[in-house]
Amino acid sequence: MNAKPFNDRFLRACLRHPVDRTPVWFMRQAGRYQPEYRKLRERYSLLEICQLPELCAEVTLLPVRQLGVDAAILFADIMLPLGPMGVRFQIEGGLGPVVETPIRQAQEIERLRPLEPEEDLPSILEAIQLLREELEVPLIGFAGAPFTLASYLIEGGPSRAFSQTKAFMYREPALWDRLLEKLTTAVTRFLKAQARAGAHALQIFDSWVGCLSPSDYRAYVLPHMRQLFAELQDLGVPLIHFGVGTGGLLALMQEAGGDAIGIDWRVHLDQAWQGLGYRTAIQGNLDPAVLLGPWELVEQRALEVLERASGRPGHIFNLGHGVLPQTPPDHLRRLVELVRERSPIFIADFSSREAAP
Question: Does residue 2 belong to any structural domain of this protein?
Fold first, then answer.
């Protein structure tokens, strides 16, 4: 197992161990809301940053230094493993990943090459090693979940209805399973390599799986996610399972695996956690758009999240999705301070209630 970092609140919370205050970090905490990042992007594309280990490490470190968050998340993109597998894509500003030739047939699936992370993505693994030397908080590695990666491969880019993905899934179930098998193997290898390089925890982003019904998730996704988490279980690092719009899928996501479930703002945290029987940690779930409002609203909504978590061991404060580009950096700094100052009160209240006869 990796050496324990100095500030291990985040890791303890992932395992539902008691902490003195609620750990806080943000998805996309390195990004376009930062003037320093915008300046870098004038010279480098996102993919170029990922190919330069020192620069990738520096971008990852920026929010840790500026915001005082309790965890760093590797600066990368969920599409990275697909390039070495033979997928040509671009990340277009304001749109996201765009795949040159969407998958439609069996031979296109069979042409996907096996991923060899140490050979194919050495810059990412080197960045992790550099970060381990610098960080005093845990480093989170990550990857996209097989369904979300498959949706990009089939749709050719972001989608609202995911109609092409669903049609492929329904009409070609054997090919769908073959595609997800290949992606599951690639994601597993990539995450294992990140853990070997020094990542303290791993998050699986299933950003678009919320488009599915519970029945479809169970039939077309759950078997592959079970396999993925089973393969990662022995790594000795906490595993976070995150999805967007997955209020109706949380029990199935828990069944698939993970030490913590990440939720968005469309569900009440207390109800979601109770529905999971408090058997996993929970991460979330402030609406990122709230940070575009006045500070008084941010404070009110953040305290509501802490109140719903009620100080129970296992809560990691985060947003329900990534930081928006228009977010005032000072709101994030003040939010970290607020969670740091106020969460011990909720934790103390929970402890006294538990200790009461």
Answer: no
Q: Does 8 qualify as catalytic in the annotation?
A: no
Strands 315-319 and 96-99, by their bridges, are unpaired
Instruction: Name 133's Cβ contacts closer than 8 Å, sequence gap at least 6.
Output: none
41 catalytic per annotation: yes
**Catalytic site includes residue 104:** no
Question: Is residue 1 situated within a structural domain?
Answer: no
What is the rounded distance in angstroms from the CA atom of residue 274 to the CA atom of residue 278? 6
Q: What is the mean pLDDT of the chain?
A: 96
Residue 175, domain extent = 9-355
CATH number of the structural domain spanning residue 96: 3.20.20.210
Q: Answer yes or no: is 4 within a domain.
A: no
pLDDT in tens, 22-48: 999 999 999 999 999 999 999 999 999
| H helical segments located in 85-210 | 106-110, 117-120, 122-134, 146-155, 163-171, 173-197
Of 181, 185, 251, whose CA–CA distance to 220 is shortest? 181
Q: Which of 33, 152, 217, 220 is catalytic?
A: 152
- To the query of whether residue 77 is one of the catalytic residues in this protein, the response is yes
User: How confident is the model at residue 332, as a pLDDT?
Assistant: 99
**Active-site residue, 333 included:** no
The model carries a pTM of 0.96
Is residue 191 within 8 A of residue 257, CB to CB? The reply is no
Decide: 317 and 339 in contact? Cβ < 8 Å.
Answer: yes
Which candidate in 9, 16, 21, 28 is catalytic?
A: 28
The number of distinct structural domains making up the chain is 1
Q: Is residue 69 in some structural domain?
A: yes
Tokens coding 67: 């915001």
